[in-house]
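Bug report

Summary: structure tokens for NAD(P)H-binding protein differ between web form and batch submission.
Environment: batch mode, default settings.
Steps: 1) Submit the sequence below via batch. 2) Compare with the web form result.

Sequence submitted:
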Amino acid sequence: MTTILVTGGTGTLGRLVAERLRADGHEVRVLSRHAQPYAVDLRKGGAGLDAAVAGVDTIVHCATAPGGGDEEAAAHLIAAARRADVRHLVYISIVGVDRVPLGYYRTKFAVEGLVEESGLGWTVLRATQFHDLPARLFGIVSKAPVMLLPARVKDQPVEVAEVADRLAELALGAPAGRVPDMGGPEVRTLDSLARAYLRATGRRRLVVSVPLWGKAYGGFRSGGHLTPGLAAGKGTFEEYLGRRFGGGQKV
């Protein structure tokens, strides 16, 4: 039996990774800011982090904070992993972090570099956005009578449970370096995804695509965040919406 630490283990992805590893009979420690007995703020490190990592064979690093602090958190985690002689560090990143000049993407790419230079055995998986991200976006913009969306942008959302399965598989294997990216089964325009969301929620809104500007928008418009040749995911956006919303009432 392997002892595995999952950071961000109460989050959308980390919780599923922990469940899969436990189902396979492994001892799983869940680290997050509020999960006892390993309640640790990775951005600060400290004795609690050393206790969480002690005796661990593999770390699956899912913790992230879009508001900032990921590089500091990774540095503290790597230092603790070195002290504990951890065999394998698995990191989940995002497709396009080296191609789309968005601040959060730059941070994820920088963390990839820290992992690669850590001196530990390491594996990095990049995945496209989970289904719940466009769903959250559409939930916000559909509050108005007209849904305004970035023009000429596509997305390739992937089922988070499938990414969790892949991470669990990687955690149980040998360090593999940068593994092939993982994308959802379909590359879709944002307006087609938005209309699917409206059908699922029973809402009627006018969908309007609006040209934007800036380097980050250009990166998304050019498809830097997509991986159509590595569409390993099977679950579609409509299937996700069906599970989440069923039939919606008209609003």
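Above is the batch result. After comparison, the two runs are identical; trailing whitespace caused the diff. Residues 79 and 214 are 37 Å apart (CA to CA). The longest strand covers residues 88-94.
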